[in-house]
Amino acid sequence: MTGKERVLATLNHQKTDRVPWIPFTGVHAGALKGYSATEVLTDSQKLYESLMEAYKLYQPDALPVVFDLQIEAEILGCKLVWADEAPPSVADHPLEETTDLPCECLMPTRESGRIPFVLDVMSKMKASVGDDIALYGLICGPFTLASHLRGNNLFMDMILDEDYVHKLMEFTTTVSLKMVDLYLEAGMDVIAVVDPLVSQISPEHFTELCHESFKTVYDYIRAKGAKSSFFVCGNATRQLEVMCKTGPDSISIDENVDMKSAKEITDSYNIAIGGNIPLTTLMLHGTQQENMKFVVNMLDTLSHDNLIIAPGCDMPYAVPADNSIGIAQAILETDAVREMVKNYEAPKEDIHVELPDYASLERPLVEAFTLDSATCAACTYMMGAMNVAKEHFGDRIDLVEYKFTEKENIARCVKMGVKNLPCVYVNGELKWSSIIPSREELFKTIEGLL
Amino acid sequence: MEMSELLNSISEKLQQGKMKDVVALCEQAVAEGNSASDILNALLGGMSVIGVKFKNNEVFVPEVLIAARAMNGGLNVIKSLLVEQGVESKGKVIIGTVKGDLHDIGKNLVSMMMTGAGFEVLDLGVDVPTEKYIAAVEENNPDILCMSALLTTTMPNMKLVIQALEEKGLRDKVKVMVGGAPVTDRFAEEIGADKYSADAASAADEAKKLVEA
User: Which residues belong to any copy of the Uroporphyrinogen decarboxylase (URO-D) domain (chain A) (predicted)?
Assistant: First the structure.
């Protein structure tokens, strides 16, 4: 199965060969190429390059193209504040002091705001990888969009002025439908309606003031022959049931919701569920081993039908690439990674590892530590680069690969203090981790040691 | 001491978010000679029930905001009486969302719960630069400084504020509390904050413990 077939089968609630993996790379993709969040959210070439790097390193089954919930708000007149390592934030709310509606003339078109940029990246991605992986077009959900426009007063309106909330939601729902049209025309396979604020209102309020909007959007996407997903953030445990009733093909949740009990609810509606790898504590600050262990555990405790493995929301900019590579490997080669995690945690007294005497080597020694260069794409590329060097330098250097699939090599990693894979040590010193060096940089480093 | 029926209904109307009723009942309570501190306790009691329900996912942001609005209506009625009768606040709290971060819902909820716990709260707003926190601490001599961040990229600014407090010799004079979606206990410890709270109601509880300690 291709990634695309796997994702679409899951969203059609059919059997797959394995659970699909969708890294919500967001601005983090830019980090892989050294671009800032602002660059990848405004420059289509830079975002395209970044997404292609994520595609190469993380072996995803699908990718969201642009992860920015402020695109619609910007078009409707909200001022944005930009950041280097995070998506922009809405700085003001045009309807904060008035219960008017925005002008119909602001409805998004192909030319509005950053839509030309979004459509350009979508078409580039569609042409490059559109046959292989599913592409997600993300729109800001109608409730969160209403809050961008009205600010926190929206919450008070829900009690004091329901009529206005109904009218505003009608407007933002129309915006959502326009966005669906634009993104489906650009070839998106799945439309994700991202509405983090849904977790902040009662299920009763959701049903009364939001149900109709979301149902309209999901029905529309279905009528157009595409698939839908409902992304929420925060503790949406209490809202999950009413979210299901709006009829999306899938729901995506974050670490604040217990995945097992959530899946029982979504399963009862035959809706696929995605999630919920913790973003900060695990992906950003955890080790590669901890990330792999978490995902193996997810796969071992959850039923695999109607399941997607994904981060809880868009990944923080500075997530170490090794952690996502480890997650991908845990999904692609679950049995091997389960063994790795077990052996990593087991006492290693019985395995004796002799480290080379790095101070008195006869020639430069290149040691590549990989999860398994046969199955992990990032490892394959890393090993590929090293093999090119070996071919070039021949007998003047030594090259060894240590695969983490062997107990002895795990013991060696522990002894050497190797934290993340794939990585390369030259003469006992860590030179490259996850990010594969260019041929020029690699050759220069080795030549410096000859 | 058992609360009178009137004071009880102040608490109940507050929980229902009925501002006009709360104001009218507070006025009646004043006219009937209830002490400002008894009326205050009725208001804070109602807000505390909302806090617990919010923490338990029984009520959500709209209900809290509307209850807080009712509480503020009531507090306005007894404001001058509180001063007259020498009723002191639990302590002074300064709160704000750190620089580069515009998220304010969580910060506002904490601010409301702190008010509801009897603190005097000075809200510095969002995108608050380090210097502004320091100036506010120097000027107001608060018991507690609260910082909020919703982004992993703005979290580190909390540490900068704590460092600035240390440099200015203010760190021992004020307790520091932090919160926000990506913030954890471990992070709070790493940056030298006194307390992390996961939700607004717990933040108010912890604040009470900090000033009583």
Answer: 3-324
Q: Provide CATH code, domain A3-340.
A: 3.20.20.210
**Three-state DSSP state, A182:** helix
CATH number for the domain spanning B35: value is: 1.10.1240.10
pLDDT single digits (tens) B104-128: 899 999 999 999 999 999 999 999 9
Last residue of a domain, one of B26, B52, B84: B84
What is the distance in angstroms between the Cα of B88 and the nearest Cα belonging to chain A?
30
Nearest CB among B17, B151, B184 relative to A86 is that of B151
Task: Output the CA torsion A227→A230→A231→A233 (10° steps).
Answer: -170
Residue A26 has what pLDDT?
96
- The string of pLDDT tens digits covering residues A104-147 is 999 999 999 999 999 999 999 999 999 999 999 999 999 999 99
Q: Which structural domain range is residue B34 located in? A: 5-84
Question: Tell me, what's the ipTM?
Answer: 0.88
Residue A434, pLDDT > 90, answer no
| B117 and B12, same domain (yes or no) | no
Interchain CB distance below 8 Å, A200 and B63: no
Q: Which pairing describes strands B120-123 and B92-97: parallel, antiparallel, or unpaired?
A: parallel
The per-residue pLDDT for B2 is 58
Q: Provide mean pLDDT across the span A318-330.
A: 96
The predicted model gives A249-275 an average pLDDT of 97
Helix residue spans in chain B (DSSP H): 5-15, 19-31, 36-55, 61-84, 105-116, 130-140, 156-167, 185-191, 200-212
Backbone angles phi, psi at A255, to 5 degrees: -65, -10
State residue A347's pLDDT score. 72
Please indicate whether, in this complex, the C-beta atoms of A86 and B153 are within 8 angstroms of each other. yes
Interface of B with A (CB under 8 A): 17, 57, 59-63, 65-66, 69, 100-105, 108, 127, 151-154, 181-182, 184
* Residues on chain A touching B61 (C-beta within 8 angstroms): 155, 200-201
CA distance A156 to chain B (A): 6
DSSP A397: S
The full set of domain ranges for chain A reads 3-340, 358-447
CATH placement of domain A358-447: 3.40.30.10
Where does the pLDDT of residue A232 fall: very low under 50, low under 70, confident under 90, or very high at 90 and above? very high
A58 near A309, Cβ under 8 Å?
Answer: no
